[in-house]
Amino acid sequence: MRVAYFYPMHHEVSFRYVAQQHVRFLSERFAVDPVDEHALVGFSPAKGTAVVLHPLLYLAGKSLDGYMHLVSRAERVIGVDVADSDRVSVYAVTIANLTDALIVPSSFSRRAYVESGVRIPVHVVPHALDDAFLAQDPPQDYINELGEYIPLLSKLREKYRVLFFYSLWHSDYRKGADLVFETLSRLSKEREDFALIARTSSPIFLYETEKRGIRTLAITKHLSHASMRYLYDLCDIYPLFSRGGGFELNGLEALARGEIVIASEGGAWEEYLPREFLVPSRAWVRVFRDNPYHTGLGPEIDVEKAVDTLHEVMDNLGEWRARAGEHSVKIRELYSPSRVKSILISTFEGILSV
Amino acid sequence: MVKVAIFTGKAPSLKAVAEDLALVAGELGHTPLVFTDVYPELVYRGKVQAAVFFYPMDPVFSIDKATYYHDFSRILQGAIAWYTTVEGRIYRQHVRDPIWGYVEFIANSQYTRERLEERGFEVLLTVPHGVHRSIVEQARKLAPALRRKVEEEFRDDVTFLVVSSSHRRKNLDGLARALNILIDKQVSGFTVLGIVEGPPPHEVIYKVAEFGSKPRYEVMAAMAAVDYVLMPTQCEGFGLPLIEANAMGIPVLHGFFPPLSEFTDPSANIVWETGAVTYLPPDPRKGGGIEFELHTFPPDAIAEAIVEAMDIKRNYPSKYEDMRAKALENAERFDSSQLYRKIFKEVLAV
Fold it and tell me: What is the 3-state secondary structure (H, E, C) of chain B?
């Protein structure tokens, strides 16, 4: 069976990179045609073609009429998506239930779909770590890309005992930027031995941290995996304070590089983070105000407890880094491209053989 | 196990019921699909095997749905149901169309059943609406965060929430007049929050969200964040906020008229008697096939109920707690898992 794999080829979104990875993996077993999202409306698949939509809800929701046309004609439709909160809307349930199978990256996502009413098979295929995070020798692309930042980064490393790294490209509220600011602001008032390095697209990020007295270096450009690896390796703690997210790949990447990742209890990240890195949540809150699909709740980290935990981590940094290092070995194996590839291929084999 | 399409309209209460129908269909092992537009292609191409229509019975607005019902009934070999509500008197002249003769209804209240039967429609069952426990659980998860916000903002006040569209039958004007009465009498110490359509009907109403913009569980969590839910309405086909609030353990202030009188427990809620029944013809600019049945009462009734509610909350905490317990008890009768099962088992036979 041929596979027509639709995804946003020309959007700088994480779905694009995961889809490219899937296309690469699946091409080793199936005849895969990558197709841009814009070709979906009016598409009538030839006999013997399975259609993959990635991300399902966004692509179907762009033209529900087009999606209806597709599902009423296609032999096999497979959706790939995430659940950013603990429920999806009835609209999302309907879109998903019109497919033959859904693939999500975490059990958290799976639970959200199933508990919201999705009754087609929902398979978990985790995201894979990029090779750049696993290679023995670090890729050198970062030298050109980070360029002028490298001396500054080195100075910060020398000057401060603890470096935090935080990546915020979009979805400030979902990713808990306000919670990171609140927590680090509290820490700044109590100790001076740390600084924050942020990779961000937001021009007001620095304004937000400076007004709270958080010593910050903001890198406001898109970075390759090589540069991200360099930053994960350079820094000590990654505050993964997201209120929601179907996987939160940054947390996995940081842990794979041996960084201490502190996150709240209750999210998708629980599936790869060790228990000791989790902080209780203070409430369950709406992850998005007006998202038509991801209408559920997510955990909001308890800032008081996060501050306490971070003091403990920073006071015993060596010990905590050692623990992160131990976990990173397991994580690199569990989320290696070869392992995820084999899960993805066997999942597709199962779906297409039915 | 089949794919069941649930076709409904865009009104929040219709979508809420459709969502619960979908959850129950899923519990029974079926694959539910909910649409706010009819996609006949799915039925014609055999992508669904059963269908539930959930539209209000208005012989003008729903005539196209009746045509689909007729067609789908043939294709789906009878695995189809029309669950409905009526908010008044159906115009006799509009039901002459022969297409309505094919439709058999499931009424959502005894009141709806009577309105249908008086125009000669066949009613197979009466199935009141419910609230699915998973929606209640989700609302309970969010409620503490909202409750904290309300308490921080309106610390010493007794709080009320109104969830309503702005249609005249919902009587938001009456609520505004009731608030004026309270202001004139210098009654203070209360706050009315609103999840209302458009501008709030009175400047003292603190609008927290646009009506229909939030998922049902969030509206129910907001209900749980206040002391009372206030329903100034004079006309209902069912009155979902009554059982939604009670399911969160929150007493409701409302007029005692059908169909609310079928579902309320006056010892759990604060009710007032209604007076003359009048009929509100459809908006001439939009048309329609029913006259809304208004159970009228003066605004003083709402004002007095608010004062009584404040007194209970402030001075009789054990009575208030007792009302909350009874509200929960009342809501237990409206578990949609139990209620909607009948639609799938007895009418669709799936």
Answer: CCEEEEEECCCHHHHHHHHHHHHHHHHCCCEEEEECCCCHHHHHCCCCCEEEEECCCCCCCCHHHHHHHHHHHHHCCCCEEEEECCCEEECHHHHHCHHHHHCEEEECCHHHHHHHHCCCCEEEEECCCCECHHHHHHHHHHHHHHHHHHHHHCCCCEEEEEEECCCHHHCHHHHHHHHHHHHHCCCCCEEEEEEECCCCCCCCEEEEEECCCCCHHHHHHHHHCCCEEEECCCCCCCCHHHHHHHHCCCCEEEEECCCHHHHCCCCCCEEEECCCEEEECCCCCCCCCEEEEEECCCHHHHHHHHHHHHHHHHHCHHHHHHHHHHHHHHHHHHEHHHHHHHHHHHHHCC
